[in-house]
Amino acid sequence: MTAPRLLLIRHGESTANVAATAAEAAGLEAIEVTARDADVPLSPLGEQQAAALGPRLAAELGGSPERARVFSSPYRRAVHTARLALGDSAPITIDERLRDRELGILDALTALGVDARLPAEAARRRWLGKFYYRPPGGEAWTDVALRIRSFARDLDWTDDRPIVVFAHDAVVSLFLFVFLGLTEEQLNEFLVTRVVGNASITSLVRDDDGAWTVETFSDDTHLSAAGVAATEHPGVARVAE
Fold first, then answer.
1. Closest by alpha carbon to 106, among 177, 5, 20?
2. Which of the 8 DSSP states describes residue 7?
3. How far separated are the first and last CA of the chain, in Å rounded?
4. For the residues 6-27, what does the mean pLDDT come to?
5. N or C: lower Cβ tally within 10 Å for the chain?
6. CATH T-level fold of 5-225
7. pLDDT tier for residue 121 given thresholds of 50, 70 and 90
8. Which residues contact 75 (CB under 8 A, 6 or more apart)?
């Protein structure tokens, strides 16, 4: 038997998401963050979004998180989302391979800030392409893909319970890259007009031949059903950021 479904959940809106949107809108070079990336908390709206996931996941999992294998990034915003959605007693396995992409020296800089403060890195990123560019002290998207491949290899594929993963937008995107067997170009094309929304669910299903397909992408209809606002993400998705 094989796991029939994979539910990929991006954490609720974080304080850094709010700060990044404000910095980009104001044309600033740096994002005002008060904690290292691993410790960034959910915003008040993010907590509401995470709680709104609860009824949706209860329906998806037949009323009990024990009906699934649940994994989470160790980052505070992902774990808090999982706990608000599933409850404090739900069994959740923390796996560091599900953490967000590490940006190294680009951390807390806007796109404008990278161009202004690190022009050589901006030029190197343009030359290498966003998918393969690795900032000093950080990771390329390919590095995150390797983490996901390692995670997938360690799963018990004889267990047919659904798999639920609480993680980050880059991680969700690269699960698609790995599980659907996409190329760099196909992933870029898929994401150019799509954004992995906060507290959204992306679900993949596996057929009898072992092929994975997208059932839903970035579905956040549970937010509107609960009267909770979705986070606005201006612009289009960018593969490196």
1. 20
2. E
3. 37
4. 96
5. N
6. Rossmann fold (3.40.50)
7. very high
8. 11, 37, 38, 39, 40, 99, 100, 168
Structure tokens at 88: 């404090």
Residue 161 Cα distances to 34, 68, 130, angstroms: 39, 5, 35
Helix-then-strand count for the chain, H and E:
9, 6
Q: What is the DSSP letter of 155?
A: S
Q: Largest Cα–Cα distance in the chain?
A: 53
Indicate the domain borders of the chain.
5-225
Strand pairing category for 69-72 and 163-167:
parallel
Overall average pLDDT of the 103-129 stretch: 96
Give residue-wise pLDDT tens across range 176-216: 999 999 999 999 888 888 899 999 999 999 998 889 999 99
The answer to whether residues 32 and 57 touch, using CB atoms and an 8 Å cutoff, is no
Higher pLDDT, 89 or 199: 199
Structure tokens given for 46: 């993010």
Residue 4 has pLDDT above 90, yes or no: no
Name the amino acid, one letter, at 39.
Answer: D
Specify the pLDDT at position 241. 39
Phi, psi dihedrals of residue 81, rounded to the nearest 5°: -60, -45
What's the CA gap between 99 and 215, in Å, rounded?
A: 24
